[in-house]
Amino acid sequence: MDYTLVIMAAGLSSRYGGLKQMDAIGPNGEFITYYSVYDAISAGFNKIVFVIRKNFYNDFRKTIGKRLEGIVEVDYVFQEVCDLPLGYKCSKERVKPWGTGAAIYSARNAIKGNFAVINADDFYGAQAYEELFDYVKNNIDEDRGLALCYEVGNTLSKNGSVKRGIVKSADGFLKEIKESKIENFGNYVMVKPLDGSSSFKTGLDTLVTVNLFVFTSKMKDIFVNNFKVFLDNNIDKLDSEYLITDVITDEIKKGNISFLIKGISNKWYGVTYRDDKDDLVLAINQYIEDGIYPKKLFNNG
């Protein structure tokens, strides 16, 4: 049986200033993705699906994928601007990928059954993968997914604002995710929702999403089918994005699906900005010193 982890790696990395998926952070040149796959395999995942752009397939496979192919089943799918449902044609001026929801659309033929989704440029820690795998393996309810969340204070960058999904929940279930720009003010954060609603202040313990979900086959079909609806309204908008979080919120409000919500206690690391890399490198070195990771993750290259 496939226990599949989808790794979204097709972003443009505009604020980082380069392809952060291929920027080494470990002592032997390891990328963030290596730590993600190491934790995923340790938890029980046996298939990795990389969602990438076709024009950096050769470099991505040579620098990242090739080393992993002998350890776990690896598949590659391409998230291309013009990979659209039959009958839709995108503008020649469109450069930006269509967003995280479109990443699932691009991976539709590589996924069977329950599957987990993560960002390629985020360091989540081993606990996250253990929670994801447990749900991928054991969930039998096609209408119910899993959202893993962090306290916003554990996801901030000291180098600038970040985008996070502010979570609203009740009785352990997700009610809404509001994509927002987050600014750090020390003992609180200011939240500016991207939908234009009023900004507000919230505490550092507020839960946020960082694209860490488990979906079912039914939910995959929802992402595929709803992409057409999104395109009907947005195909000519060059910056529009079909986002996982928007689809989840819309479908929850319609009563079509539900999501359990769980908090992750450890610190999350991301590399939104190039200077964020230094903190992650220090953290990785400390994890190695503490025996959480070996000094060399894989011995096949």
Q: Rg from C-alpha positions?
A: 18 Å
The helix content is 25-40%
The number of helical segments is 7
> What's the architecture in CATH terms?
Alpha-Beta Complex
- Number of spatially distinct domains: 1
CATH class: Alpha Beta
What is the global morphology?
Answer: globular
The average pLDDT is: 92
Can you write the helix and strand succession as a string? EHEHEHEEHEEEEEEHHEEH
The low-confidence parts are 12-18
- Structural class determined from secondary elements: alpha/beta
For this entry, give a set of tags:
11-stranded mixed β-sheet; Spore Coat Polysaccharide Biosynthesis Protein SpsA, Chain A; 13 strands; 301 residues; 7 helices; two-stranded antiparallel sheet; 26% strand; alpha/beta
Task: Describe this structure as you would to a colleague.
The chain is globular. The longest helix is centred in the C-terminal third of the chain and has 18 residues, at 217-234. It has seven helices and 13 strands. The strands form two sheets. Strands 1, 2, 3, 4, 6, 7, 8, 9, 10, 11 and 12 form an eleven-stranded mixed beta sheet that branches. It has a two-stranded antiparallel ribbon with strand order 5-13. Helix content is 29%, strand content 26%. The protein has helices at 32-43, 57-69, 100-106, 126-138, 217-234, 244-254, 277-289, and strands at residues 4-8, 47-52, 73-78, 115-119, 122-123, 144-151, 162-170, 173-184, 189-193, 200-202, 207-215, 258-264, 269-270. The chain is of the alpha/beta class and 301 residues long. α1 (32-43) crosses α4 and α3 (100-106) packs across α5 (217-234). It has a single domain (4-289), classed as Spore Coat Polysaccharide Biosynthesis Protein SpsA, Chain A (Alpha-Beta Complex), CATH 3.90.550.
